[in-house]
Design goal:
By secondary structure, the protein is of the alpha/beta class. The protein folds into 3 domains: about 190 residues, P-loop containing nucleotide triphosphate hydrolases (Rossmann fold); about 140 residues, Rossmann fold (3-Layer(aba) Sandwich); about 70 residues, RRM (RNA recognition motif) domain (Alpha-Beta Plaits, 2-Layer Sandwich), CATH 3.30.70.330. The protein is built from 14 helices and 20 strands. It starts with 7 loop residues before the first helix and ends with a strand.
């Protein structure tokens, strides 16, 4: 536990952030001065930092155990927030707990309880029943994307957790949607509402691509060829559709990854890593990828299926044209299909015949050593530069995890690097290195 708190300026410097945006400034002031805050702001506007900075400020260095709990609707968001806290470099411990991994692994990490516990309601409620960690010092609770947690069926667990935390001094709820109802069990009395939900980008274009057949696979490929080498997401409503779309894209030589709830946790995490580091420029996903995930700037999204509700349409579109960037959402429409009213007026996109997008110049390598082995990002970079016979231009993003690391490198250098690095010593650990 740190003896002194890092101030906001030093945290922002460590994160390479020059200034906070107006939403973040207002949210931080509100969370510091109010017991209950509801923060409404579009995807991609920086809500995580907006609630994490005041939480860090309100942690006490002389108190052991969990002081702040953050409930999130998905495993990926839990992992992402845990990483944000680590990157802030405050010295306060944070752990993520979520379904899809061993409960024993959680218990081992929580044996020395963190100051900040991030997790899905199902797994956190499980730990509370098992009495894995003490609740006595939990004074702050964040329900991040709380409406999504309710949508995916976590209401019973959220109720259970709130009943177990009667001494809360601060509650923060966040959402990317304005039209959200806060259920009575949350116990909000007079929350301070910070509403930036109408501050979405004005640089988003919505266009329609007409398909002459009800099956839109052919027009999807033509659209992707038309768009070329740009990062984007294709949204589908069902896992079965993703399998079918993926097979068709593979048959048409369009590189891509997939992301949906039915995938193994490791596969989901690796799909996002490869998307973030540019090994894949395209990902085919369900609405699980529509909000809350740390993914790169995206130039377009394609609605292969339209969602049933206007809110999910908004969330999907919010993955592109984020902050100050522009972007386009394409709706694939069968010529005889009527679009729902929430789409509004759209421009028809005329497709140009073009070859398939080229594969990325990057590939991702897996290294079976991480933070628990006292390995840092700098250690990984040095390992690849010195022993892998690579230059700085050959190495892209490095993501360091608890027990492993993922490194993107230039594809033409991958085989030679693996031959040099596999079974070599990274600090004190002999590591395995392989492509994923």
């Amino acid at each position: 536990m740190p003896s002194t708190k890092k101030n906001q300026a030093s945290i922002l410097q460590k994160l390479s952030i020059e200034t906070l945006n107006p939403m973040q400034e207002e949210a931080i002031a509100a969370i510091n001065s109010h017991a209950e805050v509801m923060l409404l702001s579009p995807t991609g506007t920086g809500k995580t930092l907006a609630f994490m900075l005041p939480i860090i400020t309100n942690l006490r260095a002389d108190v052991d155990g969990v002081q702040a709990m953050i409930l999130v609707p998905s495993r990926e968001l839990a992992i992402q927030i845990e990483q944000v806290v680590r990157n802030m470099g405050t010295g306060y411990k944070a752990n993520a707990a979520y379904g899809g991994r061993s409960i024993q692994k959680d218990k081992a990490e929580l044996k020395h309880a963190p100051s900040i516990l991030v997790g899905t309601p199902g797994r956190i409620a499980d730990h509370i029943r098992r009495q894995t960690f003490a609740l006595d010092n939990v004074r702050m609770l964040v329900l991040d994307e709380f409406d999504k947690s309710l949508e995916v069926g976590f209401e019973p667990e959220m109720k259970e957790i709130l009943r177990a935390l009667p001494e809360l001094e601060k509650k923060v709820l966040t959402s990317a949607t304005q039209e959200v109802a806060v259920p009575p069990f949350v116990g909000l009395r007079n929350p301070k509402v910070i509403d930036y939900s109408d501050q979405g980008s004005t640089k988003l274009q919505i266009k329609t691509v007409i398909s002459n057949t009800k099956d839109k696979l052919e027009v999807l490929v033509k659209t992707l060829n038309h768009l070329g080498n740009q990062p984007g997401i294709v949204f589908c409503n069902f896992k079965e559709t993703i399998d079918r779309v993926s097979d068709y894209l593979t048959a048409n030589n369009i590189p891509h990854g997939c992301f949906y709830g039915g995938m193994e946790q490791q596969d989901r995490e690796r799909a996002l890593i490869k998307f973030r580091n540019g090994s894949h420029q395209l990902i085919v996903a369900t609405d699980l990828a529509a909000r809350g995930l740390d993914i790169p700037e995206i130039k377009f999204i394609i609605h292969y299926h339209l969602p049933q509700r206007s809110q999910e349409f908004t969330h999907r579109n919010g993955r592109t044209a984020r902050m100050k960037s522009d972007g386009t959402a394409y709706v694939l429409k069968w010529v005889k299909e009527d679009l729902p009213d929430f789409i509004g007026k759209t421009e028809i996109e005329k497709l140009i015949d073009a070859p398939a997008p080229t594969a990325s110049e990057w590939v991702t390598l897996f290294v079976n050593g991480g933070r628990r082995d006292k390995i840092s990002k700098g250690d990984v970079a040095g390992f690849f530069l010195k022993l892998g016979n690579l230059t700085g231009d050959d190495i892209g993003d490095i993501e360091l995890k608890h027990d492993c690391a993922f490194v993107s490198i230039k594809k033409e250098k991958a085989n030679a690097a693996i031959a040099l690095l596999d079974n070599a010593r990274l600090k004190t650990k002999k590591v395995r290195v392989s492509a994923i």
